[in-house]
Amino acid sequence: MKYVSTRGSAPALDFEGATLAGLASDGGLYVPEAWPQFSADEIAAMRGLPYAELATRVMLPFVEGSLTEDELRGLCQHAYGKFAHAAVTPLKQFDEQHWLLELFHGPTLAFKDVALQLLGLLFETFLSRSSDHLTIVGATSGDTGSAAINAVAGRDRIDIFMLHPDGRISDVQRRQMTTVLAPNVHNIAIDGSFDDAQASVKRMFNDPEMTGRFHIGAVNSINWARLMAQVVYYFAAALQLGAPERKVAFAVPTGNFGDVFAGYVAAQMGLPVEQLIVATNVNDILHRALSEGDYSTGTVTPTAAPSMDIQVSSNFERLLFDCAGRDGEALAEQMRGFEESKAMRLTNAQREGAAHLFASARADADDTARAMRWAYEQCGEIIDPHTAIGLHAARQAGIAADVPVVTLATAHPAKFRDAVERATGVRPALPARVGDLFSREERYATLGGDYASIATYVAEHAIEAG
Ligand SMILES: *Cc1c(COP(=O)(O)O)cnc(C)c1O
User: Which of 37, 254, 364, 405 has the CA that lies 20 to 30 A from 283?
Assistant: First the structure.
């Protein structure tokens, strides 16, 4: 399988190359040159498979040329063997129509573990082939940092530097990162906001002084391998609910458009998907883009669902590329305009292409709290604020009663227990697997927000590329 850039001018790469590159050299994102197809019979034959085996079947066409089937199966068994639930991504029922897909049974309690546990193993496998060393640099407002650190802690040939804004993430989120004491994990609290941290990371990717000495890698969802791993649970849920004979709709709490784009990929591969409902909080750029064609950024409003407090959704570019004729040159032009003015109109072709599968909805603070209360009072389920935004969107989408609607549960409620307690009166307990989080030793550096001190720290602690 070859991967091409959404902006048309970077060289095509194989799966290994696209995984290690992250962003394409022309500023675009890698997508497969064509979508693999499964027939209805092939999908029916996936029923009842253990999750790691299903993952192997669904992902095999994407890794062709870079991993053998047995290598992929070994990595999937290793990655998904660590989940706290035998089904890995179990499905629960709310009412006659609505279902909950629990994606938070990994080590750090958010859906990002599903992809990052595999990505850590892919990095290690590919780096050992070339004797290379990868320096991962990232900024986090919470969930990505802990999931990425857990996935690469103690692995050969990788260092990870994770910046977080000092004092602006929850205690649970900070401790999930800073209590990992493996020597290749470097946590840095910076004096500044998440945007300051993110700006320093972006600058480092473009700093020849740093990129000349270190192979700098990315773990956010611009990395294709993350989206690929997320395609699997759309198949898992739909198969449980009657695919391929029966269509299923999904409601997805959305920030960077990675998770819901994986649902789009599943549909392109032949999974019968009725609709993908993009759920946003009041930071609603995607809702405006999908309903009115207006993709323009505003200022970020902090909400009870911080992992969705985002104004630019990187992966939306992948949809704009794929749903309107795959014209990389035209898209590069459109994205250059957006980067200058922070606003763009979708073309008619893009709006029509997206409308075949996508709908969207926005939930404010009241909608979110109401959805948490409905789940608890009507169904006995405690859900986190991100999931509640998805459930709100699912229940107002007007899907025909005979089509099941699956809301993706993106975080464990204990990760956001203050907001859950405010809405429901119940304070969810941390699961046993993270239970001693508050008695573990923490380790992290504290630096000023300026780029120079961050770059110096990374250069002093990283290992040069081989
Ligand atoms: C990252 C995250 C999201 C948003 O997912 P995207 O793939 O960025 O759209 C939603 N909920 C939670 C809990 C998250 O951590």
Answer: 405
The residue contributing the CA closest to ligand 1 atom 14 is: 307
Bond into 244 cis (ω within 30): yes
- Ligand 1 centre and the CA of 253: distance in Å? 7
Pocket test for ligand 1, best of 103, 109, 143 (most atoms within 8 A of CB): 143
The CATH number of the structural domain formed by 91-109+224-424 is 3.40.50.1100
pTM tops 0.85, yes or no: yes
Q: Tens digits of per-residue pLDDT, 100-122?
A: 999 999 999 999 999 999 999 99
Encode burial over 147-174: b for 16+ CB neighbours within 10 A, e otherwise.
bbbbbbbebebbbbbbbbbbebbeebbb
Closest CA to 279 of 447, 420, 397: 397
Give the distance (Å) from ligand 1 centre to CA of residue 65: 30
Return d(Cα 141, Cα 119) in angstroms, integer: 20
d(CA 187, CA 164): 8
At 12, the pLDDT band (50, 70, 90 cuts) reads very high
Instruction: Find, among 324, 212, 319, 210, the residue nearest to 259 by Cα.
Output: 319
Order across the sheet with 158-165: list the strands. Answer: 215-217, 134-139, 158-165, 185-190, 445-447
Answer yes or no: is the C-beta of 318 below 6 A from any ligand 1 atom.
no
- In 3D space, the residue among 110, 181, 9 whose CA is nearest the CA of residue 416 turns out to be 110
Q: Where are the domains of the chain?
A: 91-109+224-424
Residue 195 has pLDDT above 80, yes or no: no
Residue positions counted in the chain: 466
Task: Name the residue type at position 198.
Answer: Q
**pLDDT, position 49:** 98
* Catalytically active residues, by annotation: 112
| Alpha-carbon torsion angle 410, 223, 121, 259, nearest 10 | 20
Contacts of residue 339, defined as CB under 8 A and 6 or more positions apart, other chains included, come to: none
Rounded CA separation 344/335 (Å): 8
Q: Ligand 1 within 6 A of 253 CB?
A: yes
Q: How far is the CA of 460 from the centre of ligand 1 (A)?
A: 32
- Given 3-state DSSP classes, what are the helix, strand and coil percentages for the chain, each rounded to the nearest 5? 45, 15, 40
378-422 pLDDT, tens digit each = 999 999 999 999 999 999 999 999 999 999 999 999 999 999 999
Q: Which residues of 377-410 are buried (b: 16+ CB within 10 A; e: fewer)?
A: eeeebbbbbbbbbbbbbbbebebeeeebbbbbbb
pLDDT interval class at 318 (50, 70, 90): very high
Ligand 1: residue whose CA is nearest its atom 1? 307
pLDDT digits (tens, 9 = 90+) for 328-338: 999 999 999 99
